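The instructor's notes for this session suggest beginning with a concrete chain rather than abstract definitions. Hand out the sequence below and ask the class to guess, before any prediction is shown, which regions might be ordered.
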Amino acid sequence: MCIHNSMISDEKTILCDKKANGKVQPWREKKTANVNYFELLQILKFKKAERVSQCGEILEFDVTQEGRMKLAKTWFCKSPLCPMCNWRKTMKRSVQTTKIVEEVIRQKPRARWLFLTLSVKNVFDGDQLDKSLKEMAIGFNRLMKYKKVAKNMIGFMRSTEITVNEKDGSYNQHMHVLLCVESTYFKNDDNYLSQEDWTKLWQKAMKLDYTPVVHIEAVKNKKRNKKSEYTAIQAAVQETAKYSVKDSDYLTGNVENDLDVVKDLEKGLFRKRMIAYGGLLKTVHKELNLDDIEDGDLVQIDEESDTEEKAYSIVAQWNWNLKNYYV
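After discussion, reveal the predicted structure:
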């Protein structure tokens, strides 16, 4: 733990949550972005604005004898665009998916892993984004049921990402999919699907009148050993687990533009599931008794070991005037 003295805070101290690896957790950065997001919601007259403003306002930490801190209690708003919540969700996705993949590898050591990216044409407003995301979810389920896909499929993790095009303000929605397949997938033409095959199947599943952008690659490392292969799988896990929407896309400092983007994204993301598991990965998720990433606990996300005993607790509160957390 590192706590710095502050001359302007009446002998209070600034929160500094440093992890065992030396990395300082970006609480101030994420809360500052949360406040900016709240202010945009307030201008747009969203009812949830006040709720978003209270996200992570008071943080309670358990501190070990060694001085390491672990978040013990706070309240998160879980709004789809909240920078604070999305930071926690991304960490949780990574931790959960790593555990799931490790167990799947244990159960299916000969399985192979693929990284698939599925895209459709950009859209230009919230209504189009809402429609497109719904259609993509349906299209993906259809894709997974095609005989040639299903015959070698063990399981998958799917995450949806939305980016904002700086040039024309359009929204690009695409899916990152970590696929686990039987080793027979690579045996012959009856089992193997080329990038052209995946593209045609995705076009068919989405009922598109154009050729979509699709990319498929085997997850592997140049070094042919189990350790390097696992490292490559971990990299694919991190890519799949990353933010659904980056706050830098809607907190640019151009208020007029940011208001339009937030309004569109709020409409597009309303009641959307941005991450899903299927097949053995879904089964293992249940077996490991992991809670839901979208609606579950964002306090205890197991980013650090619980083996060290708690020595005492500290409470840090966001100071709206000084724009920082003080203990």
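Then share the key points. The longest strand covers residues 153-164. Residues 106 and 315 are 41 Å apart (CA to CA).
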